[in-house]
Each structure stands twice: as C-alpha cells, then as structure tokens.
Amino acid sequence: MLVLHASAVEIGDSAVAFIGASGMGKSTLAASFATNGFRFLTDDGLLLEPRQDACYVLPSHPSIRLWDDSQDALIGVEVNIAPPVQFTRKVRFLAGESVAFCDQARPLRRIYFLGENFGSPLEFVSMSPALALIELVKHSFLLDIEMKDLLAAQFEKLSALVSQPLCYQLNFPRSFDSLAAIRQAIVEHSTHENKVQ
Fold it and tell me: 2-190 sits in which CATH class?
C-alpha cells in the first residue's frame, strides 16, 4: 500500500485527501469536516490501497491531533482526549458523536495539495501529472529507501495515481471564520463531474 503524510475525509461515498507539510492545515480541515456533518478517515497517515476499480483510502486511528487554536475553534468540551504522546504537543481528540469517524474504506476522488501562502484567496488549481508526482513523492513514507524493488513499486503506483484527474493545489485563507465557505467549496469541487473512472 501507499502511505502518505495526509489527512482524509468522506464526502458522499468517496474520500478527499489533504496533503501538505506540517502546519499547513491538514488536521484543521479534517476536524472542520468531522465536526460539521461529515466523517474523517485519517488525520495524518493516509493509507492508499490500489484496487481494480479505484484507489481506496483505508481508515486509520479514530483520532485527530490539533493545536490549541484549532481546538478552541472546532472542538467542544465534551470530546474525549487521548493520553499525550512525546513526539508532539498537539492534543489528540478521539472520535465520537462530536467528531465523526468513517471506519470503512472509500474510493479516492480528490487529492488537494495545500498551498503555502496563508493569505491566498480560495482557489483550486489543476496540477500536471509530473508536478503531482513530485509532490506525492515528497509526502510519502518509506521505511527503507535502499529497497529498490519497493521503490520501483512505489513509483509505479504513484504514477498510476497521478495519471487520473485527481490532483489539485488548494489555496485558501487560513482563517477559522472562512472554514464554512472552504468546506462548501471543497464539497462542490470534489463532487464535480470530473470523477475517478
């Protein structure tokens, strides 16, 4: 399977993934959807399983890690908190009634690479397969880069993934007040006619 540094949410019967470096807003977007009528599949480690009909997002641990500002804006006091871990100061919130989790695999419909300009207006920019491949490689988890067969298989799977009309750069303002409009735009864009075949 492919493993990417990304979050993912369920929209309709499909999955939408958010990819970017740490601090770009992946978890905030996932939590925003999960607390507003949608379900999240993963917060950080995105597992992709290529199947005959599509590439599927597999659910991971039912929790979301957030910084204090995202926590204050999105999470209610009734949400259960997991024990802290040493590698991050983020607080980990467990899925439940207030933070909805999808425990079933969903076909991948869109990959949104999060733009790094925090003041950008909301826009979706189609990415070429070559650029999307570079970005996917940058955000892939590989346990052993010396295993040439594994690397070859990884590149083959990533190349097949970017050959589909999935990948867009998502530029958006990093403002909690804008999240409702951002969610609506993502829903509309991801359910547009340009779907995975």
Answer: alpha beta
